[in-house]
Amino acid sequence: MLAYLFVVLAIAVRFIPHPFTFTPVAASLLFFGARGARKQAWIPVLLLVGSDIVLTKLVYGYPLRPDQLIIWAWYGAMVLLGGLLRQNARPRRVVGASLAAAVSFFLASNFGVWLGWTLYPMTLAGLVECYVAGLPFFRNELISDVLFTAVMFSIPALLRLLDRTAAPTPAA
User: What is the residue extent of each domain of the chain?
Assistant: First the structure.
């Protein structure tokens, strides 16, 4: 249930004012992959694709573009990456997955912009220029992915701890 709640939270955050690229999207996908039902792994991807379509068409007034397919594939990849944490969600692995999410989103999204838009020449120099132009946005992505992933993966442990402290102790 918590996995679905985090995906809904990630979608909701995208509809309210927030610093650019500072969202819990990657964290919610990693958490869903680690803790959600495997047979339902397509659900968060479909929900985020739907929210992308609504945001793109209705909120921002842009046309849908082929480069969005790269982002949608990235959503699925993040659920799969989260699945690698299913049996072992130790802090080092969780932080590593969140770093991988931030770096892979930076690489994938900027590649999509270079490939699908006419902002940069279709040369190696144009690709490098696109990545350099994306660097200011990478910081927020990195911070939000690590922060939200740490929080989301910590909440179940915190809830278990609170449950144990709230349980009455047996009388001797």
Answer: 2-16+25-154
